[in-house]
Amino acid sequence: MFFPRDEITVMVRENDLAETIRKPIAKSEARKVLAHIGDWKESESEQWKARANAQQSKLDNGDPFGLAEVYKTLSLRMESDKLSAADRRQLSESEQSLAEELSMALSQPVDKVCQRMEKAALG
C-alpha cells in the first residue's frame, strides 16, 4: 500500500489484512461524521496530559468519529486561544486524516471538505 501524503509504502501480510486495514468509509457514513462534528458536545479534561492522552488514543485508532471528536474539541479550544503545542499537533493530524478520508468518500477536494468540517465545528 502506498500513502501519498507521507510518500511511504507499507507492506501488510495478506493474512493480516482483515485485522490491520479497514475499508474507507462510504458517502453516507461521511455525512454522519460531518454531522457528528456539529453534534459533539462532550467536555474534555482541562488537564493537558489527560486530554492529550485521550486524544492521542483516538488518533491512533483512526476511527473517523474519534477523529471528528478530536477535531471539534481542539477547534473550539483554538477559538479561545487555549492550544498547547501538543494540541496544535493533534489538531493538525486530526484535520488532515479526517479531511483526506472525507474527501475520498464525498468526492470533493480536501480544501472544500476542510471548510465543511470547520463550519460543522464552529457553527
Task: Write a structural description.
By secondary structure, this protein is mainly α. The protein has a single domain (26-122), classed as Up-down Bundle (Methane Monooxygenase Hydroxylase, Chain G, domain 1). Helices cover 67% and strands 3% of the residues. It has helices at 17-20, 27-39, 48-61, 64-79, 85-106, 110-122; strands at 2-3, 8-9. The chain has a two-stranded antiparallel ribbon. β1 and β2 (8-9) form a beta hairpin. The longest helix is centred in the last third of the chain and has 22 residues, at 85-106. The radius of gyration is 15 Å and the shape is globular. The model has no long low-confidence stretch (mean pLDDT 90).
